Amino acid sequence: MQPYCWQISLLWRTITMLRRFTALETIQKRWASVRAMVKIDESVNKQIETDELNPKRHPGIIKSRAMQLPEWIEKAMVEATADHPVKPLRKVAGILANYLKQRHPPLEKHEFVDKLTEVQELVSRKVDLSKLSNDEIDEFWKRNQYNVKIKLKQRVYAWVAVEYDAYKSLCYMLARGAQEYSVLYQIFNEIHLADKEFQPKALFDFGSGIGTVTWAASQFWITSLNEYYCVDSSGDMHRLAESIIANHPSKLKEVYFRQFLPSSARIKSDIVVSAFSLMELPNAQARLEVVLNLWMRTNNYLIIVEQGTNAGFRIVNEARDFVLDMSSKSLETDNPNPFHVFAPCPHDMICPRYIVDKTPCNFQSSYFTVSVGKQSELKKERYSYVVLKKGERPADDPQWPRLVRPSLVRSKHTMCRICTATGKLEEIVFTASKHGKPLYKCARHSDWGDKLPLQIIDPEEPASSD
Protein backbone atom coordinates (compact mmCIF):
# COMPACT_ATOMS: atom_id res chain seq x y z
CA MET A 1 0.00 0.00 0.00
CA GLN A 2 2.71 2.50 1.00
CA PRO A 3 4.90 2.56 -2.17
CA TYR A 4 1.78 2.66 -4.34
CA CYS A 5 0.24 5.52 -2.36
CA TRP A 6 3.58 7.40 -2.39
CA GLN A 7 3.57 7.33 -6.21
CA ILE A 8 -0.03 8.49 -6.26
CA SER A 9 0.86 11.29 -3.85
CA LEU A 10 3.61 12.59 -6.15
CA LEU A 11 1.36 12.38 -9.20
CA TRP A 12 -1.48 14.08 -7.33
CA ARG A 13 0.70 17.02 -6.21
CA THR A 14 2.07 17.60 -9.70
CA ILE A 15 -1.33 17.46 -11.37
CA THR A 16 -2.91 19.67 -8.70
CA MET A 17 -0.29 22.39 -9.21
CA LEU A 18 -0.93 22.41 -12.96
CA ARG A 19 -4.68 22.49 -12.45
CA ARG A 20 -4.42 25.40 -10.03
CA PHE A 21 -2.42 27.48 -12.48
CA THR A 22 -4.98 26.78 -15.21
CA ALA A 23 -7.88 27.54 -12.88
CA LEU A 24 -6.24 30.79 -11.75
CA GLU A 25 -6.01 32.04 -15.34
CA THR A 26 -9.65 31.07 -15.95
CA ILE A 27 -10.96 32.73 -12.81
CA GLN A 28 -8.92 35.90 -13.26
CA LYS A 29 -10.35 36.16 -16.76
CA ARG A 30 -13.79 35.47 -15.37
CA TRP A 31 -13.71 38.20 -12.75
CA ALA A 32 -12.44 40.67 -15.31
CA SER A 33 -15.45 39.96 -17.51
CA VAL A 34 -19.05 41.10 -17.31
CA ARG A 35 -21.10 39.57 -14.49
CA ALA A 36 -22.92 36.40 -15.47
CA MET A 37 -26.57 36.58 -16.41
CA VAL A 38 -29.00 34.14 -14.81
CA LYS A 39 -32.50 32.80 -15.31
CA ILE A 40 -34.74 30.75 -13.05
CA ASP A 41 -35.10 27.02 -13.57
CA GLU A 42 -38.09 26.50 -15.87
CA SER A 43 -39.77 23.75 -13.84
CA VAL A 44 -39.47 25.75 -10.61
CA ASN A 45 -40.77 28.86 -12.34
CA LYS A 46 -43.88 27.04 -13.59
CA GLN A 47 -44.61 25.67 -10.11
CA ILE A 48 -44.32 29.14 -8.57
CA GLU A 49 -46.51 30.76 -11.24
CA THR A 50 -49.24 28.13 -10.75
CA ASP A 51 -49.01 28.44 -6.94
CA GLU A 52 -47.88 24.83 -6.62
CA LEU A 53 -44.71 26.01 -4.90
CA ASN A 54 -43.97 28.73 -2.39
CA PRO A 55 -40.60 30.46 -3.08
CA LYS A 56 -39.95 30.36 0.66
CA ARG A 57 -39.73 26.58 0.39
CA HIS A 58 -38.22 26.07 -3.04
CA PRO A 59 -36.44 22.72 -3.65
CA GLY A 60 -32.96 24.25 -3.34
CA ILE A 61 -33.41 24.90 0.39
CA ILE A 62 -31.71 22.09 2.29
CA LYS A 63 -30.64 23.55 5.62
CA SER A 64 -32.21 21.76 8.57
CA ARG A 65 -33.49 23.29 11.79
CA ALA A 66 -31.36 23.83 14.89
CA MET A 67 -30.55 20.34 16.11
CA GLN A 68 -30.95 19.05 19.63
CA LEU A 69 -29.54 15.72 20.73
CA PRO A 70 -32.20 13.02 20.99
CA GLU A 71 -33.36 12.30 24.52
CA TRP A 72 -31.79 8.84 24.58
CA ILE A 73 -28.33 10.27 23.83
CA GLU A 74 -28.54 12.94 26.54
CA LYS A 75 -29.74 10.31 29.01
CA ALA A 76 -26.73 8.13 28.13
CA MET A 77 -24.40 11.11 28.60
CA VAL A 78 -25.82 11.79 32.07
CA GLU A 79 -25.24 8.15 33.00
CA ALA A 80 -21.67 8.22 31.60
CA THR A 81 -20.71 11.28 33.68
CA ALA A 82 -22.44 10.13 36.88
CA ASP A 83 -19.17 9.20 38.64
CA HIS A 84 -17.43 12.51 37.88
CA PRO A 85 -17.92 16.06 39.21
CA VAL A 86 -19.58 17.80 36.27
CA LYS A 87 -18.13 21.29 36.77
CA PRO A 88 -14.42 20.38 36.36
CA LEU A 89 -15.39 17.95 33.60
CA ARG A 90 -17.06 20.73 31.62
CA LYS A 91 -14.13 23.06 32.24
CA VAL A 92 -11.67 20.57 30.73
CA ALA A 93 -14.16 19.94 27.90
CA GLY A 94 -14.12 23.66 27.07
CA ILE A 95 -10.32 23.71 26.98
CA LEU A 96 -10.31 20.62 24.73
CA ALA A 97 -12.89 22.18 22.39
CA ASN A 98 -10.78 25.34 21.96
CA TYR A 99 -7.64 23.29 21.38
CA LEU A 100 -9.29 21.15 18.68
CA LYS A 101 -10.70 24.21 16.94
CA GLN A 102 -7.26 25.83 16.71
CA ARG A 103 -5.42 22.75 15.48
CA HIS A 104 -3.31 22.63 12.34
CA PRO A 105 -2.07 19.54 10.52
CA PRO A 106 1.59 18.66 11.14
CA LEU A 107 4.17 20.25 8.84
CA GLU A 108 5.54 18.17 6.01
CA LYS A 109 9.31 17.73 5.81
CA HIS A 110 9.69 20.21 2.96
CA GLU A 111 7.59 22.76 4.86
CA PHE A 112 9.80 22.36 7.93
CA VAL A 113 12.92 22.87 5.79
CA ASP A 114 11.38 26.04 4.34
CA LYS A 115 10.68 27.36 7.83
CA LEU A 116 14.20 26.52 8.97
CA THR A 117 15.70 28.30 5.96
CA GLU A 118 13.51 31.33 6.67
CA VAL A 119 14.71 31.47 10.30
CA GLN A 120 18.37 31.02 9.35
CA GLU A 121 18.12 33.87 6.86
CA LEU A 122 16.53 36.04 9.55
CA VAL A 123 19.24 35.23 12.10
CA SER A 124 22.10 35.79 9.64
CA ARG A 125 20.72 38.86 7.87
CA LYS A 126 23.31 41.19 9.47
CA VAL A 127 26.25 38.89 8.72
CA ASP A 128 27.82 38.23 5.33
CA LEU A 129 28.47 34.51 5.60
CA SER A 130 30.21 34.48 2.21
CA LYS A 131 33.17 36.33 3.76
CA LEU A 132 33.61 33.78 6.56
CA SER A 133 35.59 30.57 6.49
CA ASN A 134 33.90 27.21 7.05
CA ASP A 135 35.13 27.10 10.64
CA GLU A 136 33.82 30.61 11.29
CA ILE A 137 30.45 29.71 9.79
CA ASP A 138 30.24 26.61 12.02
CA GLU A 139 31.11 28.74 15.04
CA PHE A 140 28.47 31.31 14.07
CA TRP A 141 25.70 28.69 13.95
CA LYS A 142 26.84 27.14 17.23
CA ARG A 143 26.56 30.52 18.93
CA ASN A 144 23.12 31.11 17.41
CA GLN A 145 21.77 27.59 17.82
CA TYR A 146 19.49 28.56 20.71
CA ASN A 147 18.27 31.69 18.87
CA VAL A 148 17.39 29.61 15.80
CA LYS A 149 15.58 27.06 17.97
CA ILE A 150 13.45 29.72 19.68
CA LYS A 151 12.49 31.50 16.44
CA LEU A 152 11.72 28.18 14.76
CA LYS A 153 9.49 27.18 17.65
CA GLN A 154 7.54 30.42 17.20
CA ARG A 155 6.89 29.63 13.53
CA VAL A 156 6.25 25.87 13.62
CA TYR A 157 2.99 24.45 14.96
CA ALA A 158 3.74 21.83 17.61
CA TRP A 159 1.41 19.08 16.41
CA VAL A 160 0.92 16.04 18.64
CA ALA A 161 -1.60 13.24 18.33
CA VAL A 162 -4.37 13.41 20.94
CA GLU A 163 -4.57 10.28 23.08
CA TYR A 164 -8.06 9.69 24.46
CA ASP A 165 -8.27 7.87 27.78
CA ALA A 166 -11.55 7.34 29.64
CA TYR A 167 -11.65 10.83 31.19
CA LYS A 168 -10.64 12.67 28.03
CA SER A 169 -13.25 10.68 26.09
CA LEU A 170 -15.92 12.05 28.43
CA CYS A 171 -14.56 15.56 27.89
CA TYR A 172 -14.72 15.05 24.12
CA MET A 173 -18.32 13.88 24.45
CA LEU A 174 -19.30 17.11 26.19
CA ALA A 175 -17.07 19.29 24.00
CA ARG A 176 -17.99 17.96 20.55
CA GLY A 177 -20.95 15.56 20.75
CA ALA A 178 -23.79 18.00 20.02
CA GLN A 179 -22.13 19.93 17.19
CA GLU A 180 -20.82 16.83 15.42
CA TYR A 181 -24.25 15.24 15.57
CA SER A 182 -25.76 18.45 14.12
CA VAL A 183 -23.23 18.60 11.26
CA LEU A 184 -23.61 14.92 10.36
CA TYR A 185 -27.40 15.10 10.57
CA GLN A 186 -27.35 18.00 8.10
CA ILE A 187 -25.09 16.14 5.65
CA PHE A 188 -27.13 12.92 5.86
CA ASN A 189 -30.30 14.95 5.46
CA GLU A 190 -28.93 16.42 2.21
CA ILE A 191 -28.27 12.91 0.88
CA HIS A 192 -31.70 11.73 2.02
CA LEU A 193 -33.51 14.63 0.33
CA ALA A 194 -31.71 14.22 -2.99
CA ASP A 195 -31.59 10.41 -3.09
CA LYS A 196 -34.83 9.20 -1.53
CA GLU A 197 -34.51 5.70 -2.97
CA PHE A 198 -31.10 5.17 -1.37
CA GLN A 199 -31.37 2.40 1.23
CA PRO A 200 -27.89 1.66 2.59
CA LYS A 201 -27.21 -1.67 4.23
CA ALA A 202 -23.73 -1.07 5.67
CA LEU A 203 -21.96 1.97 7.14
CA PHE A 204 -18.22 2.30 7.74
CA ASP A 205 -17.00 4.99 10.15
CA PHE A 206 -13.29 5.83 10.32
CA GLY A 207 -12.31 7.66 13.51
CA SER A 208 -15.68 6.81 15.02
CA GLY A 209 -14.97 8.37 18.42
CA ILE A 210 -18.10 8.50 20.58
CA GLY A 211 -20.33 7.26 17.74
CA THR A 212 -21.83 10.47 16.35
CA VAL A 213 -21.94 9.07 12.79
CA THR A 214 -23.97 6.08 13.98
CA TRP A 215 -26.29 8.36 16.01
CA ALA A 216 -27.06 10.55 12.98
CA ALA A 217 -27.25 7.79 10.33
CA SER A 218 -29.73 5.81 12.41
CA GLN A 219 -32.13 8.77 12.23
CA PHE A 220 -32.47 8.30 8.45
CA TRP A 221 -31.84 4.66 7.54
CA ILE A 222 -32.69 2.70 10.68
CA THR A 223 -34.82 0.23 8.71
CA SER A 224 -32.22 -0.56 6.04
CA LEU A 225 -28.87 -0.33 7.86
CA ASN A 226 -27.95 -3.69 9.29
CA GLU A 227 -24.23 -3.14 9.92
CA TYR A 228 -22.29 -0.29 11.54
CA TYR A 229 -18.52 -0.77 11.39
CA CYS A 230 -16.67 1.67 13.69
CA VAL A 231 -12.89 2.14 13.67
CA ASP A 232 -11.07 4.19 16.31
CA SER A 233 -7.63 3.80 17.88
CA SER A 234 -8.95 4.50 21.41
CA GLY A 235 -10.43 1.57 23.29
CA ASP A 236 -11.87 3.99 25.85
CA MET A 237 -13.70 5.85 23.08
CA HIS A 238 -15.16 2.55 21.90
CA ARG A 239 -16.40 1.68 25.38
CA LEU A 240 -18.05 5.09 25.76
CA ALA A 241 -19.61 4.88 22.26
CA GLU A 242 -20.91 1.39 23.01
CA SER A 243 -22.51 2.54 26.29
CA ILE A 244 -24.29 5.42 24.51
CA ILE A 245 -25.48 3.35 21.53
CA ALA A 246 -26.84 0.74 23.97
CA ASN A 247 -29.52 3.31 24.87
CA HIS A 248 -30.81 3.55 21.28
CA PRO A 249 -34.59 3.00 21.23
CA SER A 250 -34.28 0.50 18.39
CA LYS A 251 -31.48 -1.42 20.12
CA LEU A 252 -28.91 -1.47 17.33
CA LYS A 253 -27.32 -4.92 17.27
CA GLU A 254 -24.89 -5.12 14.38
CA VAL A 255 -22.45 -2.48 15.64
CA TYR A 256 -18.80 -3.56 15.42
CA PHE A 257 -15.86 -1.77 17.01
CA ARG A 258 -12.26 -2.11 15.83
CA GLN A 259 -9.07 -0.26 16.77
CA PHE A 260 -7.34 -0.57 13.41
CA LEU A 261 -8.33 0.15 9.82
CA PRO A 262 -8.54 -3.16 7.92
CA SER A 263 -5.88 -3.33 5.23
CA SER A 264 -8.15 -5.22 2.84
CA ALA A 265 -10.93 -3.29 1.12
CA ARG A 266 -12.72 -6.31 -0.32
CA ILE A 267 -15.75 -5.83 1.93
CA LYS A 268 -17.45 -2.61 0.85
CA SER A 269 -19.99 -0.35 2.55
CA ASP A 270 -22.73 1.83 1.10
CA ILE A 271 -21.72 4.84 3.21
CA VAL A 272 -18.12 5.46 4.29
CA VAL A 273 -17.41 8.39 6.59
CA SER A 274 -14.35 10.12 7.99
CA ALA A 275 -15.67 12.78 10.36
CA PHE A 276 -13.20 15.07 12.16
CA SER A 277 -10.52 12.37 12.00
CA LEU A 278 -7.94 13.12 9.28
CA MET A 279 -6.42 15.91 11.39
CA GLU A 280 -5.21 13.21 13.79
CA LEU A 281 -2.91 11.61 11.19
CA PRO A 282 0.83 12.50 11.26
CA ASN A 283 1.39 13.60 7.65
CA ALA A 284 -0.12 13.97 4.18
CA GLN A 285 0.96 10.50 3.07
CA ALA A 286 -0.83 8.89 6.01
CA ARG A 287 -3.95 10.93 5.22
CA LEU A 288 -3.88 9.96 1.54
CA GLU A 289 -3.37 6.29 2.38
CA VAL A 290 -6.48 6.41 4.58
CA VAL A 291 -8.49 8.27 1.91
CA LEU A 292 -7.43 5.69 -0.68
CA ASN A 293 -8.46 2.85 1.65
CA LEU A 294 -11.82 4.47 2.37
CA TRP A 295 -12.48 5.18 -1.31
CA MET A 296 -11.71 1.57 -2.24
CA ARG A 297 -14.23 0.25 0.28
CA THR A 298 -16.98 2.70 -0.82
CA ASN A 299 -20.00 1.37 -2.71
CA ASN A 300 -21.93 4.61 -2.97
CA TYR A 301 -21.04 7.63 -0.81
CA LEU A 302 -17.73 8.72 0.72
CA ILE A 303 -18.07 11.61 3.19
CA ILE A 304 -15.11 13.63 4.48
CA VAL A 305 -15.84 16.22 7.20
CA GLU A 306 -13.56 18.51 9.21
CA GLN A 307 -13.99 21.70 11.19
CA GLY A 308 -14.65 24.79 9.06
CA THR A 309 -11.27 26.41 9.71
CA ASN A 310 -8.61 27.05 7.07
CA ALA A 311 -6.77 23.96 8.34
CA GLY A 312 -9.89 21.79 8.19
CA PHE A 313 -10.79 22.98 4.71
CA ARG A 314 -7.27 22.29 3.42
CA ILE A 315 -7.53 18.69 4.59
CA VAL A 316 -10.97 18.20 3.01
CA ASN A 317 -9.82 19.79 -0.24
CA GLU A 318 -6.66 17.66 -0.21
CA ALA A 319 -8.82 14.51 -0.04
CA ARG A 320 -11.17 15.83 -2.74
CA ASP A 321 -8.33 16.66 -5.14
CA PHE A 322 -6.67 13.31 -4.45
CA VAL A 323 -9.75 11.25 -5.34
CA LEU A 324 -10.49 13.41 -8.40
CA ASP A 325 -6.97 13.03 -9.79
CA MET A 326 -6.60 9.38 -8.81
CA SER A 327 -9.89 8.34 -10.38
CA SER A 328 -9.37 10.42 -13.51
CA LYS A 329 -6.21 8.43 -14.19
CA SER A 330 -7.96 5.10 -13.53
CA LEU A 331 -5.58 4.17 -10.72
CA GLU A 332 -8.26 2.36 -8.74
CA THR A 333 -7.06 -1.24 -8.50
CA ASP A 334 -10.41 -3.06 -8.26
CA ASN A 335 -13.01 -2.15 -10.83
CA PRO A 336 -12.68 1.49 -11.95
CA ASN A 337 -15.99 3.28 -11.56
CA PRO A 338 -17.10 6.70 -12.71
CA PHE A 339 -17.97 9.08 -9.90
CA HIS A 340 -18.90 12.68 -9.21
CA VAL A 341 -18.89 15.26 -6.44
CA PHE A 342 -22.33 15.04 -4.87
CA ALA A 343 -21.94 17.93 -2.41
CA PRO A 344 -21.33 20.70 -1.69
CA CYS A 345 -19.79 21.46 -5.10
CA PRO A 346 -22.05 21.53 -8.19
CA HIS A 347 -18.99 20.57 -10.29
CA ASP A 348 -16.07 18.13 -10.43
CA MET A 349 -13.38 20.74 -11.09
CA ILE A 350 -10.77 22.27 -8.83
CA CYS A 351 -12.17 24.30 -5.94
CA PRO A 352 -11.94 28.01 -6.81
CA ARG A 353 -12.09 29.25 -3.21
CA TYR A 354 -8.37 29.58 -2.40
CA ILE A 355 -7.65 30.95 -5.85
CA VAL A 356 -9.99 33.90 -5.28
CA ASP A 357 -9.11 34.56 -1.62
CA LYS A 358 -7.62 32.94 1.48
CA THR A 359 -10.83 31.99 3.28
CA PRO A 360 -12.13 28.42 3.60
CA CYS A 361 -15.16 27.00 1.85
CA ASN A 362 -17.29 26.18 4.88
CA PHE A 363 -20.89 25.94 5.99
CA GLN A 364 -22.80 26.36 9.22
CA SER A 365 -25.17 24.32 11.34
CA SER A 366 -27.15 25.37 14.40
CA TYR A 367 -27.33 23.18 17.48
CA PHE A 368 -28.25 23.15 21.16
CA THR A 369 -25.39 22.37 23.51
CA VAL A 370 -25.37 19.31 25.76
CA SER A 371 -27.49 20.01 28.83
CA VAL A 372 -25.33 17.88 31.16
CA GLY A 373 -24.40 20.04 34.12
CA LYS A 374 -25.75 23.30 32.72
CA GLN A 375 -28.60 24.75 30.71
CA SER A 376 -28.60 24.09 26.97
CA GLU A 377 -27.69 27.01 24.67
CA LEU A 378 -28.21 27.66 20.96
CA LYS A 379 -24.88 27.84 19.11
CA LYS A 380 -23.48 27.51 15.59
CA GLU A 381 -20.79 25.23 14.21
CA ARG A 382 -18.83 25.79 11.00
CA TYR A 383 -17.61 22.82 9.04
CA SER A 384 -16.04 21.90 5.70
CA TYR A 385 -17.04 18.74 3.89
CA VAL A 386 -17.19 16.86 0.63
CA VAL A 387 -19.48 14.02 -0.43
CA LEU A 388 -18.20 11.90 -3.32
CA LYS A 389 -20.60 9.50 -5.01
CA LYS A 390 -19.67 6.55 -7.20
CA GLY A 391 -21.49 6.37 -10.51
CA GLU A 392 -22.15 8.80 -13.33
CA ARG A 393 -23.75 12.13 -12.52
CA PRO A 394 -27.48 11.74 -13.32
CA ALA A 395 -28.49 13.24 -16.65
CA ASP A 396 -31.33 15.14 -14.96
CA ASP A 397 -29.08 16.69 -12.28
CA PRO A 398 -29.65 20.45 -12.71
CA GLN A 399 -26.36 21.26 -10.94
CA TRP A 400 -27.85 24.34 -9.34
CA PRO A 401 -25.27 26.74 -7.89
CA ARG A 402 -24.57 26.60 -4.16
CA LEU A 403 -24.59 29.61 -1.84
CA VAL A 404 -21.11 29.59 -0.30
CA ARG A 405 -21.49 32.67 1.90
CA PRO A 406 -24.40 34.21 3.85
CA SER A 407 -26.91 36.09 1.68
CA LEU A 408 -27.02 39.86 2.13
CA VAL A 409 -30.72 40.75 2.15
CA ARG A 410 -31.37 44.46 1.71
CA SER A 411 -34.27 46.66 0.70
CA LYS A 412 -35.35 45.69 -2.84
CA HIS A 413 -32.23 43.66 -3.55
CA THR A 414 -30.38 40.55 -2.31
CA MET A 415 -26.72 39.75 -2.90
CA CYS A 416 -25.78 36.08 -3.23
CA ARG A 417 -22.30 34.62 -3.54
CA ILE A 418 -22.47 31.28 -5.30
CA CYS A 419 -20.31 28.47 -6.67
CA THR A 420 -21.49 27.36 -10.12
CA ALA A 421 -21.43 24.20 -12.21
CA THR A 422 -18.61 25.71 -14.30
CA GLY A 423 -16.32 25.76 -11.25
CA LYS A 424 -16.48 29.54 -10.80
CA LEU A 425 -17.47 31.84 -7.97
CA GLU A 426 -20.06 34.46 -8.83
CA GLU A 427 -21.49 37.38 -6.89
CA ILE A 428 -24.98 38.30 -8.08
CA VAL A 429 -27.28 41.07 -6.89
CA PHE A 430 -30.88 39.95 -7.40
CA THR A 431 -33.71 42.44 -7.96
CA ALA A 432 -37.33 41.88 -8.95
CA SER A 433 -37.07 44.25 -11.92
CA LYS A 434 -34.00 42.60 -13.42
CA HIS A 435 -34.53 38.93 -12.58
CA GLY A 436 -38.28 38.64 -12.14
CA LYS A 437 -40.27 38.16 -8.94
CA PRO A 438 -40.05 34.33 -8.75
CA LEU A 439 -36.25 34.21 -8.84
CA TYR A 440 -35.94 37.30 -6.65
CA LYS A 441 -38.16 35.70 -3.98
CA CYS A 442 -36.18 32.45 -4.17
CA ALA A 443 -32.95 34.38 -3.65
CA ARG A 444 -34.36 36.33 -0.68
CA HIS A 445 -35.37 33.13 1.09
CA SER A 446 -32.14 31.22 0.39
CA ASP A 447 -29.12 31.34 2.62
CA TRP A 448 -25.65 29.94 3.17
CA GLY A 449 -25.51 26.28 2.11
CA ASP A 450 -28.72 26.28 0.06
CA LYS A 451 -28.91 25.86 -3.72
CA LEU A 452 -30.44 28.44 -6.02
CA PRO A 453 -32.82 27.03 -8.69
CA LEU A 454 -31.30 28.90 -11.60
CA GLN A 455 -29.18 28.52 -14.70
CA ILE A 456 -26.12 30.62 -15.48
CA ILE A 457 -26.09 32.32 -18.89
CA ASP A 458 -22.43 32.96 -19.61
CA PRO A 459 -22.03 36.32 -21.42
CA GLU A 460 -18.89 34.98 -23.10
CA GLU A 461 -20.95 32.36 -24.89
CA PRO A 462 -23.16 33.22 -27.88
CA ALA A 463 -26.84 33.49 -27.04
CA SER A 464 -29.02 30.56 -28.06
CA SER A 465 -31.52 30.91 -30.88
CA ASP A 466 -34.45 30.78 -28.49
Automatic annotation (TrEMBL):
Q: Give the location in the cell.
A: Mitochondrion
Q: What is its main location?
A: mitochondrion
Q: Which SUPFAM superfamilies match?
A: S-adenosyl-L-methionine-dependent methyltransferases
Pfam families to which the protein is assigned, alphabetical: Rsm22
Instruction: Name the UniProt key words of this record, in alphabetical order.
Output: Iron, Iron-sulfur, Metal-binding, Mitochondrion, Transit peptide
Summarizing the function annotation, the protein's role is: Mitochondrial ribosome (mitoribosome) assembly factor. Binds at the interface of the head and body domains of the mitochondrial small ribosomal subunit (mt-SSU), occluding the mRNA channel and preventing compaction of the head domain towards the body. Probable inactive methyltransferase: retains the characteristic folding and ability to bind S-adenosyl-L-methionine, but it probably lost its methyltransferase activity.
Task: Spell out the protein name for this chain.
Answer: Methyltransferase-like protein 17, mitochondrial isoform X2
The taxonomic lineage of its organism, from the top, reads: Eukaryota, Metazoa, Ecdysozoa, Arthropoda, Hexapoda
